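INTERNAL AUDIT FORM
Audit reference: QA-55
Scope: verify that the stored structure record matches its stored sequence.
Auditor: D.O.
Record contents follow.
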Amino acid sequence: MSGIYILLLGFITAFIVVLFSMPSLIKVAKLKNLVDQPGEDRKMHRWSIPTLGGIVIFGAIVFSYALWFPEDYIHINGMLTNFKYLFACLILLFFVGVKDDIIGTAPVKKLIAHIMVGFILVVMADIRIFQMHGIFGIHQPLALWQSYLLTIFVYIVIINSINLIDGLDGLAGLISLLGALFFGILFFCSGNIPLSLLAMVLCGTMLGFIFFNFSPARVFMGDAGSLSIGAIFCVLAINCINESYHFAPKWVQILNKPVLTMSIMSYPLFDVLRVFILRVIKGKSPFTADKNHIHHHFERLGIGHAKTSIILFVFSLLVVLFQVFIQIYIGFTNATLILFVQITFAFSLMLFVFLIIKKNKKSI
């Protein structure tokens, strides 16, 4: 079967599974009182909402990816490795997430689960970052210990970043939808249909989920969903950096892949690193929950969940398009310069949008 048909079938299957399964899950969750109560100060919803959307998200991804997994592409290096070890990690994170969504999970047990997943992905599956592609002038391959440490750090940041943006109606779904779409296009251009299928299955799942999570939300993805999505993004991001793009169009080959990966994940990375740094400066644990995320500040301006989610979705899109512009049309080639230009652009754009909205609200 042609690669494009496999991707379409995977996307449509995941979308339909979520669309038809989620109403039943919402009904059961309400009947069994498996809902998140709006009691705590940091919570932004005003009524009880089911938190088990991750069950359908996990089921849709696993079912759709396994159903349409392209065995004809067995010649692609690491295809079966990604499939086997990723599913093992997803199952582990799913059970940890579901338990946390229902009765809570001790931080120590979560840490143990993350250590196990990190070991499986990095050591057993050998899904790790091998080189920096010229960032900070580093062109030679990383030493094994450097590769392990950097990849573990990337895993912790990505998986927590997805988890932490799941605090606003529609935000995590929209950002994940966009990220998955970009990764799907990149892997399709490189001829890696198995990884492109994984991205498109996630894309279809998120599109279906947004129907139920966009403001006003009827369900949350919970930890079961955010941890599963975070693990998939880890696999996609690291493989995106390592992928060979010999058969891709010239414009794809030109783009610096580590910076492009960070651009695709720009809002989650920008938000989690900002929050972690601020918490450490204040002498708090970086994992302490609060209402200091970027989306909290936007929402406090009074523009609502829907507009905030759309603004941050457009922000993420513009950051990626800006890298394409500076590399293809302006001709930037220095990896370190591209990274700093992207960071400066993302920070400036976020600040500009925030100040414009704040000024408009004051003038009303």
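Auditor finding: record pair retrieved intact. The mean pLDDT is 89.
Action required: none
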